[in-house]
Amino acid sequence: MDLTPLTIDVGVLVSKTVTSLHSHLVTRPTGRAVRLAIEAQMASTGVQSLSIIDLSDVTILDFSCADEVIAKLLQGYLKPDSPEAFFMFRGVRESHRDQIQVVLERQALVAVAETDTGVRELLGVIEAYDTRVWQLLETEGPLVREDFERVFPEPILDDVLGRLRKRRIVFQNPISGRYHALSQLVDNPL
Q1: Which residues does the chain have with pLDDT short of 70?
Q2: Domains of the chain, each with CATH number or no CATH
Q3: What is the pTM of this model?
């Protein structure tokens, strides 16, 4: 099992796919071109992948591009017949936040984001209990189910862990059974 992160610099993709001197994602066709370029880079990663979509050099991100690059990318890899892909969006600026949040809410999606200051958080639609479980993983590191039970004795724990896995914001190692926050897999690949 190899989940070595693939870093995709969106600023570089914009300059390669769009004739522009600026790293602005401001039209749906631009967003679509960038998403297709991301998918092309991911095509060689295999059955499982972890991609870091780096938005650090993106100056302006509008709603249509957030929809094309983030929401449609997530949707495409949540389909039952798609490869198991995990995404973390790096370099999310305050000026990107509202656009990303709105498009994720419209599609009932959630994403792991790393802000331009290095804070890792969830954006989109997520229940408070799910957030608490994710934050425990984020702060404590990989955990087995029994580790959660000490902190979250509620009977819905299996449902929560199942939702987090299905939404691909946590990874469960099929060998050890440990649950990993995506950010930890970025820092310490399997």
Answers
A1: 1-2, 15-25
A2: 1-125 (no CATH), 126-190 (1.10.10.10)
A3: 0.89
